[in-house]
Task: inverse folding
């Protein structure tokens, strides 16, 4: 492949939600869900986005597919400013990016037949006639491993893994270029997760798809991703090639996160876990947002908010203390 | 089950148990070179007690049924296992494996219309299933306590943590309000809550998930139970907090001399927190092993399949080795191995009978007609 061109680019995304309001309804405090997040995703690659609950990783995913409008920042899709699009132009563009959610039971309409669920995006975009849409739904379902009899079944008749396959088939209906996968296997039985992960990888290869893979399970992110970004309280603390990041984590938070992963292997001396819990995104500390839990914290960390610095080829971390 | 009942389970008194827990590193690694072909068929597991002299908990042939339009469905089918005093044991399984119902049955807490259709639950030699309501009340919390997955639904949202913990303290003992409060504060300190005094007056919603789970554990410890049953205690928590809570459970197990029965779907949690493990699939125990044996030489094709299918940090593969098919619903295989439709070693015989539990060596058992070979290397005598 030649120089990978960015398919999707996030520039300085920020989104805050008001949490306390004053007498006249004016917001007095905000949750900084996403706070200055920038990255790019090359065509055909998978960017893994990891973080704990409340890190803002899902919000970033939703912003990229315009399910959520940011307060600031830009999203470039093939160089075009996605946030500037409106009406018909936006609707046309939506065909090119899709999202798959964590809980297929919550994201599939329980009263619709699976064939109609998968064909719905085609209906919305007025593609094909009834018969063509049904044929397309059938072939999509076949591709994700569900036979023709599933067309007329309802979501509750399927197992969790099969429902997630339906969600994936729906996301593929419009032949998108980019798919946000928001915890696509977290709700599935352990013995079924690998099937869905393999399916997602096969589809990516076959169709040249680009993924943003959001998950809290580090092992599966390491397996799926070309590059990985680690988020904490709305900010990316470290980003780099998956291999570099997992083999040579730079940020103290990434290191703690890796140390905490319970590996299915006994007799591994488990390092002492990180103290405390994710802080509040309402009252952010003036310095580094990880400082209150950081084992290496120094005076400077409490005053100065670190920014992402290049510390290796394509490997960046936001920490005052790490050297390249 | 009502919230009141749940709260009740997590209640009791304080009599420090003198039992001593052995570090898992001292577990004898028994019997790894013994061939499975020469094994005997064990109808129930002969108990092995690497930890204490005798079993604290001995479950024999436990059956749990739920009624359905087509007759009763057996969701736990002939489960037999033991937990020694001070021992950390895991019961691992996916959804529908029957692991949670097995745990609830230990406290005679199967929610109706489900019922315990057979078997015995011996706790220090007495059958819990034959207890009168009064005996059960005295037993739950005081001798065996339970911690649940979602502390937010197990805690009462309109009562302060202090009140809930003191309630647990005074459930099995007459103590003054002051003394109960003082003890609640000490308990919160023991589960590593910073600033226990402040936590006493907090409501559950004001605490983080990890703090709420610590509060639940404090309540469970209040009467110094000999067995703590933890049902997916860290599943709802973030990974860094999960590590803290697992380590806390094992610290407490050692310092209080408590046995720990950990119910989980996560093999990583098993590796981090247990010494011995029972694997359940579709209502049956399919494998028993020390944690080390299980990971190094799984005997059941299901266990091996699970271990192989997990992505691992340091092991980069292009494709995962997935187990085909979906998890079998419980009770759907009366006369066959429930894993047969997904198994790569399946034979006609697997579809015609439920495999017996083979016991190739003490402390090792597998329910399979074609178990995997044990590791080749011999353990030095």
Result:
């Amino acid at each position: 492949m030649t120089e990978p061109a960015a398919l999707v680019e996030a520039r300085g995304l920020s989104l805050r939600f008001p949490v306390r309001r004053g007498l006249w309804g004016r917001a007095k405090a905000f949750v900084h869900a996403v706070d200055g997040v920038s990255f790019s995703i090359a065509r055909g690659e998978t960017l893994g986005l990891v973080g704990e609950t409340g890190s803002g990783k899902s919000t970033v995913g939703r912003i990229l597919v315009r399910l959520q409008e940011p307060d600031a920042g830009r999203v470039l899709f093939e160089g075009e400013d996605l946030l500037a699009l409106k009406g018909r132009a936006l609707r046309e563009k939506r065909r090119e990016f899709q999202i798959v959610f964590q809980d297929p039971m919550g994201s599939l309409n329980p009263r619709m037949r699976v064939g109609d669920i998968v064909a719905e995006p085609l209906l919305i975009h007025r593609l094909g006639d009834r018969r063509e849409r049904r044929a397309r739904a059938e072939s999509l379902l076949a591709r994700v491993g569900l036979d023709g009899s599933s067309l007329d079944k309802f979501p509750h008749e399927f197992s969790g893994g099969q429902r997630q396959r339906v969600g994936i088939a729906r996301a593929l209906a419009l032949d998108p270029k980019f798919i946000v996968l928001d915890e696509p296997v977290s709700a599935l039985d352990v013995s079924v997760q690998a099937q869905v992960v393999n399916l997602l990888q096969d589809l990516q290869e076959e169709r040249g798809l680009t993924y943003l893979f959001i998950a809290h399970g580090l092992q599966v992110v390491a397996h799926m991703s070309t590059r990985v970004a680690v988020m904490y309280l709305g900010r990316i603390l470290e980003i780099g090639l998956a291999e570099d990041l997992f083999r040579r984590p730079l940020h103290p938070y990434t290191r703690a996160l890796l140390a905490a992963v319970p590996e299915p292997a006994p007799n591994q001396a488990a390092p002492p876990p990180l103290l405390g819990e994710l802080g509040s995104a309402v009252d952010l500390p003036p310095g580094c947002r990880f400082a209150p839990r950081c084992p290496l914290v120094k005076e400077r960390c409490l005053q100065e908010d670190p920014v992402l610095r290049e510390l290796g080829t394509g490997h960046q971390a936001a920490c005052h203390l790490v050297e390249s | 089950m009502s919230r009141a009942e749940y709260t009740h389970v997590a209640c009791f008194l304080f009599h420090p148990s003198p039992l001593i827990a052995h570090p898992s590193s001292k577990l004898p690694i028994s019997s790894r070179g013994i061939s499975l072909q020469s094994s005997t068929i064990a109808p129930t597991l002969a108990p092995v007690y690497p930890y204490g002299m005798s079993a604290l908990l001995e479950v024999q042939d436990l059956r749990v049924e739920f009624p359905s339009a087509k007759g009763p469905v057996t969701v736990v089918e002939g489960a037999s296992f033991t937990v020694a005093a001070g021992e950390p044991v895991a019961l691992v399984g996916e959804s529908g494996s029957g692991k949670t119902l097995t745990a609830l049955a230990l406290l005679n807490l199967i929610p109706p219309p489900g019922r315990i259709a057979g078997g015995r639950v011996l706790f220090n030699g007495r059958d819990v299933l034959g207890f009168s309501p009064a005996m059960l009340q005295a037993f739950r919390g005081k001798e065996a306590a339970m911690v649940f997955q979602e502390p937010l639904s197990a805690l009462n949202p309109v009562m302060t943590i202090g009140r809930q913990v003191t309630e647990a303290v005074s459930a099995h003992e007459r103590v003054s309000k002051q003394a109960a409060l003082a003890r609640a504060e000490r308990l919160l300190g023991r589960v590593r809550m910073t600033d226990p005094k402040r936590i006493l007056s907090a409501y559950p919603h004001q605490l983080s998930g990890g703090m709420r789970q610590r509060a639940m554990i404090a309540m469970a410890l209040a009467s110094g139970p000999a067995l703590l049953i933890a049902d997916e205690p860290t599943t709802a928590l973030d990974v860094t907090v999960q590590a803290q809570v697992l380590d806390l459970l094992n610290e407490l197990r050692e310092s209080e001399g408590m046995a720990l029965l950990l119910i989980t779907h996560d093999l990583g949690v098993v590796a981090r927190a247990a010494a011995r493990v029972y694997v359940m699939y579709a209502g049956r125990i399919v494998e028993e092993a020390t944690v080390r044996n299980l990971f190094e030489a799984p005997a059941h094709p299901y266990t091996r399949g699970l271990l192989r299918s997990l992505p691992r940090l340091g092991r980069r593969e292009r494709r995962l080795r997935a187990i085909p098919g979906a998890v079998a619903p419980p009770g759907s295989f009366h006369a066959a191995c429930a894993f047969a439709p997904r198994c790569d070693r399946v034979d006609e015989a697997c579809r015609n009978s439920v495999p017996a539990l083979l016991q190739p060596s003490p402390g090792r058992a597998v329910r399979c007609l074609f178990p995997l070979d044990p590791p080749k290397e011999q353990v030095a005598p």
